[in-house]
Write a structure and sequence with these properties.
By secondary structure, the protein is of the alpha/beta class. Strands 3-4-5-6-7-15-14-8-12-13 form a ten-stranded mixed β-sheet, sandwiched between helices. A six-stranded mixed β-sheet has the order 17-16-1-2-18-19. Helix 10 links the parallel strand 14 and strand 15. The radius of gyration is 22 Å and the shape is globular.
Length: about 425
């Protein structure tokens, strides 16, 4: 099984076939010579363009590269520059919306970045006393955990907008190996965290918060449980599967982050685990045993009673109280906490390193920060979102995240040779010897 290491400058695209039993095909595309966006062959809404400071360059692309440049200047980073290309991804639901990921080169690594919060940056990172970085990864993928109903059909539950099941659930099937989504996210974001740490002034205190959901996943099953479609024993089995996966993913993520920080010359940086909805865990275990699920307001009250002042402030803002919004709010809590005021009244430089699908959380956290009365001259909040290592296409050519369109660990190249995608990702993000 070959890793097909290749170059970090290539655009890697995996296209799934019409037949689920067939392996997906890995395609490689070199950086185009032209600054005019070029459609990626076989895709719908995916373009690639060369970096070029030309008057006719796409405005969104030009702005994306400018933000990369501004970010480097703000951090005062040496050895950081724009990369050779940009990736443009058009939303399938909103054809007018497109996200641009501009190439960025660090010490020995390369990413394609979508950056938020850099448009009006003033000053430098030296203005801050501390920096708080938040990153996370979800559990499983839509392929990796399957709910089987009494008719033998798969039922979708791991989305807040999933259509409720009408049939009783019979079993839950989980693949023991990590999904490609989980592994790729851990490796890519760990490397991004190390690269950011290397850019920051060495004297700047930094804390990394790892936000991996656990109890948030319990909530996905509660509607079906209340409707009498899930037995208590199956619900508890699901909770145990979630707990086991949480510890596996969290441990892997923390080890990769620690390794990246060591390579960046920042072994002193503490890595904190976000508590998420942990105060609800015991209550939910008991409730599926008794069949008495607390109402949404009671769950929120339990989070407030836990003593975290951030939850108390959000309750005063009248945040949504639905069960599914609780999980979403827990992620907002960490982003707001990262920008919170310190005892001396000076805020922190807040940095969110995550997958682009979580950028909406960043926008909402900035809006809530204003509602909470953050000073106008407070330190900035930055969102840094590296494009996935491999762009995944559905059989119809539309791009989708690895979480929604996970092809599994193995693919084949255009010649039919097998490719171990885990090994490919390891090779692309390996720390070169002697770097930093």
């Amino acid at each position: 099984m070959r890793a097909h290491e290749g170059s970090a400058s290539e655009l890697l695209v995996i296209k799934q076939t019409e037949h689920p039993e067939e392996p997906a095909v890995l395609h490689r595309y070199d950086t185009p010579a032209s600054s005019s966006p070029r459609p990626v062959p076989g895709s719908e809404g995916l373009w690639q363009t060369a970096a070029a400071d030309m008057p006719d360059q796409d405005k969104a692309v030009r702005r994306a590269f400018q933000r990369v440049h501004t970010l480097g200047e703000y951090f005062g980073a040496d050895g950081f520059d724009t990369g050779p290309d940009a990736l443009i991804v058009q939303s399938r639901r909103d054809r007018a919306h497109k996200a641009v990921f501009a190439g960025a080169e660090f010490h020995g690594s390369r990413h394609r970045l979508h950056i938020k919060g850099a448009r009006k940056l003033t000053g430098t990172a030296d203005d801050a006393d501390r920096a708080e970085l938040v990153s996370g990864v979800c559990l499983f993928s839509h392929r990796n955990l399957r709910f089987i109903d009494e008719h033998g059909d798969c039922t979708e539950l791991l989305r807040a907008d999933a259509v409720p099941s009408a049939a009783r659930l019979r079993s839950i099937v989980m693949e023991s190996e990590l999904s490609l989504y989980e592994y790729e996210t851990v490796v890519r974001q760990s490397r991004m965290i190390g690269d950011v740490a290397a850019m920051l002034p060495p004297s700047l205190a930094l804390t990394v918060t790892v936000d991996v959901p656990r109890v948030q996943y319990y909530l996905y099953l509660l509607d079906a449980f209340q409707d009498g479609l899930v037995a208590a024993e199956l619900a508890q089995h699901y909770f145990r599967l979630v707990d086991g996966r949480y510890h596996h993913v969290l441990d892997l993520f923390c080890r990769h982050i620690r390794r990246a920080l060591d390579a960046a010359g920042r072994p002193d940086v503490p890595v904190r685990t976000a508590p998420g909805l942990d105060p609800l865990a015991e209550c939910l275990w008991e409730s599926v045993t008794t069949g008495d699920i607390p109402c949404d307001d009671d769950l929120l009250a339990l989070m407030v009673a836990g003593g975290d002042p951030m939850w108390k402030e959000l309750r005063e803002l009248d945040v949504p109280r639905s069960r599914h919004c609780l999980g979403y709010t827990s992620y907002l809590v960490e982003l707001l906490r990262s920008a919170g005021l310190s005892d001396d009244g000076k805020g922190a430089l807040s940095i969110n390193v995550d997958s682009f699908g979580e950028a909406l959380l960043f926008d909402q956290a900035r809006q809530m920060r204003q509602r909470l009365g953050a000073p106008e001259d407070d330190l900035p909040s930055l969102g840094i979102y590296a494009a996935e290592t491999v762009q995944t296409l559905r059989p119809d050519g539309h791009a989708a995240s690895l979480y929604l369109t996970d092809p599994g660990r193995y693919a084949v190249d255009e010649d039919g040779a097998p490719v171990d995608l885990f090994r490919l990702i390891d090779a692309l993000y390996a720390q070169p010897p002697g770097v930093i």
